[in-house]
């Protein structure tokens, strides 16, 4: 069904193509001006129309009665090409086993005269999959292409195509299709199929397809085959499982309004309806993350605006205005903490219920508050970490100023005050040698909280301590970046604080000269094994028995 829709509504000429406007215009103009190139390279994500346009190009340049770059569909050339029977249109899928043989054949057949068409056209899909040998063979042909032969190469991974090939092609970059374009096409199909479908439902399908027309058409096909002839947003959401996003929005709003009972009811409703709470919690964490990012700078929404409808996005912006950054971050922490516990609890909803209650308390507990943000590490200029205290009643909060209208300048002042207060509050002095000698144990202890963080940390070593700040050095910039990622850093701090029973901050430093010491302390065989597995996972190595 899905593939039929895609085939059935495949565009027949340039005028029927939706999107890729600049490519279509350039190609039709060059044909109108009788300037047909010898080698084209189409690059872009899957489902953006590369092969469709390649086939149309092949037909257009061969039509005998071309009018305004639109094939007539009546001449012998048009008929034979549309029927897929022309010997002069050769499609090669480089990803298939026969790709290499085909290229070898290509070398032999390319010089032969055309069977019937004006241009012999080779369409080589997924060209990046060719072997070096095949690339060389292709290059030879591209260097001196016989007249009346046109090559159209298509790839989703342009970086894997050798420069020598690229330099001989006219390159066209296919963009992901804007949602509007996809909706337009889906609406045409729905109309032709005599299916009534809500515009919001079409938008949802388009968004799920992430800019790929083929995927969108395939989804529409599946939905049409499952549902009646009157499709609503609700039905589409159910099929796509996107109800999660809406529920995440509802629960986030309840948390910010401190409506714990509402949020708990919602969680239990989900459970009753057979939802997987682990999956749902991931949606919720992602939703809160997006909210946090919008709160910091609404321009950053461009990174996830394609994941949601404009209506959802507006709602998110509105919510972010009313929510305090500190509450958003502490909620993220709480739901992250709940994630690993959901599957191991007899009552899977319990960790989420606890997280909701903690998040909706008037005052976050002292521990959470500390996790929120008190960077010793200099803040980026945006002042993203500016933590405002709640209408304070704890002694710590009383000293802070609470205001939503604080200007940026005041924010940084406030932040300094916070750091100072926090520092006063911390009388911990972490000893470097203690950390060093417990390092392997820390790595093991962090595993239940976050498996991959433990693996990341095993590529670091403690280099310095100052009061409650532990500096970790790593010679690898990859690990440095990963660990400096805010969520990762906060998680490490949270777990270290728990394990070391003091409030710990961490600081990750890149030190190219650092030589990682292997286990300073002997550790149990079983523990060693688990660490080893992590290391192997990352490095892709294997164990050599001594
Ligand atoms: Zn024709």
Description:
This protein is an alpha/beta fold and 546 residues long. It folds into five domains: 20-173, Rossmann fold (3-Layer(aba) Sandwich); 179-240, Helicase, Ruva Protein, domain 3 (Orthogonal Bundle), CATH 1.10.8.60; 243-358, Zinc Finger, Delta Prime, domain 3 (Up-down Bundle); 373-421, no CATH class; 432-538, GMP Synthetase, Chain A, domain 3, CATH 3.30.300.180. It contains 26 helices and ten strands. The chain has helices at 2-8, 21-32, 50-62, 76-82, 99-109, 132-143, 163-166, 179-192, 199-208, 213-226, 233-240, 243-256, 260-272, 277-296, 310-322, 325-342, 350-360, 366-372, 395-398, 408-425, 432-437, 439-446, 451-457, 477-484, 486-500, 525-539, and strands at residues 39-43, 89-93, 120-125, 149-155, 170-173, 196-197, 230-231, 461-466, 469-474, 505-510. The strands form three sheets. It has a five-stranded parallel beta sheet, with helices on both faces. A three-stranded mixed beta sheet has the order 8-9-10. A two-stranded parallel sheet has the order 6-7. Helix 1 (2-8) packs across helix 10 (213-226), helix 12 (243-256) packs across helix 14 (277-296) and helix 13 packs antiparallel against helix 17 (350-360). Bound molecules: zinc ion. Zinc ion is lined by residues 63-65, 71-72, 74-75, 77-78.
| Strand ordering within the main sheet | 2-3-4-1-5
CATH uppermost class of the largest domain = Alpha Beta
The portion of residues forming beta strands comes to: 5-15%
- Biggest beta sheet summary: 5 strands, parallel
Question: Helical content, roughly?
Answer: 40-55%
**CATH level-four homologous superfamily name of the largest domain:** P-loop containing nucleotide triphosphate hydrolases
Helix segment count? 26
**Count of distinct strands:** 10
Q: Any idea what the CATH architecture of the largest domain is?
A: 3-Layer(aba) Sandwich
Question: In the CATH scheme, what's the topology name of the largest domain?
Answer: Rossmann fold
Give the helix/strand class: alpha/beta
Report Rg: 30 Å
Shape descriptor reads globular
The count of domains is 5
Small molecules held by this entry = zinc ion
Distance, first to last CA: 57 Å
What number is the mean pLDDT?
78
Unreliable segments of 5+ consecutive residues: 363-427, 519-528, 530-546
